[in-house]
Amino acid sequence: MTIWTMITKMSEGLGRTCAIFFLTLLFSLPLGMLVAMLRMSRNRVVSAVTKVYIAVLRGTPLMLQLLAVTYGPFYLFGSGVAREKLIPVVIAFSLNYAAYFAEIYRGGIESMSRGQYEAAEVLGYSRIQCFMRIILPQVIKRILPSVTNEVVTLVKDTSMAFTVAYQEMFTIGKQIANSQTSFLPFVIAGVFYFVFNAVVGFIMGRAEKRLSYYR
After folding, report:
1. Ranges of each domain in the chain
2. How many beta carbons lie within 10 A of that of residue 211, not counting itself?
3. Which of 21, 72, 137, 189 could pair with 173 in a Cys bridge, judged by C-beta atoms 3.0 to 4.6 Å apart?
4. What is the pTM of this model?
5. How many C-alpha atoms does 100 have within 13 Å on its Cβ side?
6. Confidence band of 82 (pLDDT split at 50, 70, 90)
7. The CATH number of 3-211 is which of 1.10.3720.10, 3.40.190.10, 1.20.140.160, 3.20.20.210?
8. Are 90 and 24 in contact (CB under 8 A)?
9. 8 Å CB contact between 15 and 82
């Protein structure tokens, strides 16, 4: 098999890799904010339950979570395994990354001084208006480097979908490597991931520059 043929076959899986990446961000970023709000709730029960959720999702391997979401319903309820593996894969990734994003959000929100809330209250802002118009824009600016780090990690973590036999780029590359007894498909996959991350890094870097309005 020629290098071009390998690249062509692996490119078919690149679309699935991108699907995991973009869908995970689409769901995990807002879910992470919700989890962060629940984590900071004054209700001790809600806060404690959310804290356990974050601890479990961050403290167990993503690979295990993929297996649990994909095959768990079959072992627990006897239901069939989902034919379209993208759905459980995205659910597992979104739940996992929401836990990480939640802690990033919480760190950013709690780093804001209490005085800004008090000043907003004096100006007649409600707590929601204060958060949306004053606190959140500053939080986004502060946490963007940490979010960028998680997004870059997500690009590489998409390869874990091979655990549940989802035919993304790395899985196809692994199959080609086994059939051809060649390490070249892994090199090609590495180049794909490097370029993908270079694009992500460039976009996030531009976003950071746009938000560096005090420099």
Report:
1. 3-211
2. 15
3. 189
4. 0.88
5. 19
6. low
7. 1.10.3720.10
8. yes
9. no
